[in-house]
TrEMBL record:
It is an enzyme of class 2 (transferase). It comes from Falsiruegeria litorea R37. It catalyses: phosphoenolpyruvate + UDP-N-acetyl-alpha-D-glucosamine = UDP-N-acetyl-3-O-(1-carboxyvinyl)-alpha-D-glucosamine + phosphate. Pathway: Cell wall biogenesis; peptidoglycan biosynthesis. Pfam families: EPSP_synthase. Keywords: Cell cycle, Cell division, Cell shape, Cell wall biogenesis/degradation, Cytoplasm, Peptidoglycan synthesis, Pyruvate, Transferase. HAMAP family: MurA. It is found in: Cytoplasm. The active site is at C118 (proton donor). This is UDP-N-acetylglucosamine 1-carboxyvinyltransferase. The gene is murA. Cell wall formation. Adds enolpyruvyl to UDP-N-acetylglucosamine.
């Protein structure tokens, strides 16, 4: 298994291009199942998760090809040969469950493995199935698989979710595009990836309003057609690289960065003494003066502070002046990076969903292990700021969500290399 060697190298400056969003692309790809005409995505990120979704769609009989070094994904679901998302694929990647809504809507049947849990916590699907049942689907659990059918087609309904789940919103909205009549989804998720999905569905002929708010209304149509759509900027990759000058010093411009994607995160950076400025090409970030200040952070659904940036923010706060309290409210087990950061000299106490971080003057390089996607990049950030060498093992987690991480960080002066095993 490959590892990454990082050697602390002081302040880092330059530009980093930001890719299309993994979490948007992984919901846009299953949208191809809603139409027999081709769907083309541009600005796709080059990630192993995208390859996993490609394999899943191909296992259903869809044609998927990647062009322009993986940045364009051309898909066609004219004839499908299967309606089953196999456990072997779903257990690798929870986003596989996003084929449920589209398959059910267009074919009236779907068999999708439950994802089970992962390193960060449980990944239940009750909110997805409750919403689809409200649209008339009959769903039962057999052998670890959800067997869903809607022989007479789905019917629009008013449905309120008890929690604004991103995945459930995506499945329900996609299913409702082909349902008979109007669906009103209340307490819907407001994440930019939902807005991007709705933009794409609208290009395919769907009639939807209210995306980006808590109430989304979908007027079902008989069929959707082909479209071409550009994947929105990855706000999590953006936030991650915004932390490079914050933790190391220097000034970095994030090409393609947008303030509206990272509002709550920028507020916390500002309180910590980091300046973020809009430029013609994106966002420019640098430390205002001296050491970063401690700040308290609570993860929340959008527009709150994202759970997917909590591990990276913790790496920064390990070096801050004072004590910060981080509360993780989305996933019950998302502090696996804390003990690894402590191997680098960080002072962190974890109790349940709360981590108390008292900043230290200097982190020290160490061999550490990535336990999940965002944990792995938090260890790289810590390694960039640490004295000496840090070796991050199990980097296959990183490949799920960060394209060309070595090249991007070398571009701003980091000493980083991938060690092939
Ligand atoms: C609200 C939130 O921050 N969602 C994040 C979540 O999306 P993802 O779609 O994976 O998860 P959800 O938005 O559904 O929310 C997660 C929370 O809801 C609970 N839950 C979810 C579905 C369900 O049917 N029943 C249920 O109880 C989960 O146990 C968890 O506590 O992970 C993605 C990858 O990290 C992030 O990009 C999303 O921003
Ligand atoms: C945890 C993540 O992804 P997934 O939900 O696909 O596991 C993530 O993007 O940080």
């Amino acid at each position: 298994m490959d590892s990454i060697l990082v050697t602390g190298n002081g302040a880092l400056s330059g530009q980093i291009p930001i890719a299309g969003a993994k979490n948007a692309c992984l919901t846009l790809m299953p949208a191809t199942l809603l139409s027999e005409e081709p769907l083309t995505l541009t600005n796709a990120p080059r990630l192993s998760d995208i390859k996993t979704m490609t394999a899943l769609l191909q296992s259903l009989g869809a044609e998927v090809s990647t062009l322009q070094d993986g940045q364009v994904i051309a898909m066609s679901s004219h004839d499908l040969t299967s309606h089953t998302a196999d456990y072997d694929i779903v257990r690798k990647m929870r986003a596989s469950n996003l084929v449920l809504g589209p398959l059910l809507a267009r074919f009236g049947q779907a068999v999708v493995s439950l994802p089970g849990g992962c390193a960060i916590g449980a990944r239940p699907m009750d909110l997805h199935t409750d919403g689809l049942a409200a649209l008339g689907a009959e769903i039962e659990l057999k052998d670890g698989y959800l067997h869903a059918k809607a022989p007479g087609g789905l019917k629009g309904a008013v449905h309120e979710m008890r929690f604004a789940s991103v995945g459930a919103t995506e499945n329900i909205v996609m299913a409702a595009t082909l349902a008979k009549g109007t669906t009103v989804l209340k307490n819907a998720a407001r994440e930019p990836e939902i807005v991007d999905l709705v933009d794409c569905l609208r290009k395919m002929g769907a009639q939807i309003s209210g995306e980006g708010t808590s109430t989304i209304e979908i007027q079902g149509v008989d069929r959707l057609h082909g479209a071409t759509h550009q994947v929105v900027t990855d706000r999590i990759e953006l936030g991650t690289y915004m932390l490079v000058p914050a933790i190391c010093g220097g000034e970095v411009e994030l090409l393609g960065g947008r303030m509206d994607l990272v509002g709550a995160f920028v507020e916390k950076l500002d309180a910590a003494g980091i300046s973020v400025e809009e430029t013609e090409k994106g966002l420019k970030v640098c430390r205002r003066n001296g050491r970063v200040k401690a700040v308290d952070v609570t993860t929340e659904p959008f527009p709150g502070f994202p759970t997917d940036l909590q591990a990276q923010m913790m790496a920064l706060l390990c070096t801050a002046e004072g004590t910060s309290v981080l509360e993780e409210k989305i996933f019950e087990n998302r502090f696996m990076h804390a003990p690894e950061l402590m191997r680098m000299g960080a002072n962190i106490e974890v109790q349940g969903g709360t981590a108390t971080v008292t900043g230290v003057e200097q982190l020290k390089g160490a061999p550490v292990m990535a336990t999940d996607l965002r944990a792995s990049v938090s260890l790289i950030l810590a390694g960039l700021a640490a004295e000496g060498e840090t070796v991050v093992s199990r980097v296959y987690h990183l490949d799920r969500g960060y394209e060309h991480v070595v090249r991007k960080l070398e571009g701003v002066g980091a000493k980083i290399e991938r060690i092939k095993s």
